[in-house]
Design a protein that fits this description.
Blueprint (H helix, E strand, L loop, with lengths): L3 E7 L2 E9 L4 E3 L2 E2 H4 L3 H13 L6 E8 L3 H19 L1 H10 L30
Length: about 130
């Protein structure tokens, strides 16, 4: 099996995922998953596409991850892994990934700050006099 690459985005985070046949090692920016995401919840989020499709321990995942915060990075990585698994065998894995919502990109991002205001929607306190 050759290297399969996919891209995952969430908020400001971008994950470039490279999937190869292997033993289930996930490496993010040269560091192991447990070291990069110490939180068990974020590790669970990252591994979701692999566990749902019963591919845990079958593929090695190498990731270049930058931008955003930890939650956005974890969800970008989840999308990238799901897209890569889908490229391996679309007929077998796509329906289960789609039902669980791992193939949809979450388009919500931070709204930009408008000029003359303290934030995107917030306004300065109104003074009648």
């Amino acid at each position: 099996m050759e290297v399969i690459n996919a891209l995952g985005r969430r908020k400001a985070a971008i994950a470039r995922v490279y999937l190869t046949a292997g033993t289930g090692v996930i490496t993010i920016n040269g560091r192991p998953l447990e070291n990069y995401f110490p939180s068990g919840l974020l590790q669970y989020v990252v591994k979701q596409p692999l566990t749902v499709t019963d591919n845990e321990g079958k593929y090695d995942v190498k990731v270049n991850l930058n931008g955003g915060g930890t939650k956005g990075q974890a969800e970008a990585l989840r999308l990238g892994i799901a897209r890569a698994i889908c490229k391996v065998d679309a007929e077998a894995f796509r329906p289960t990934l789609k039902i669980n919502g791992f193939l949809t990109r979450d388009p919500r991002t931070v709204e930009r700050k408008k000029p003359g205001r303290p934030g995107a929607r917030k306004r300065f306190q109104f003074s009648k006099r």
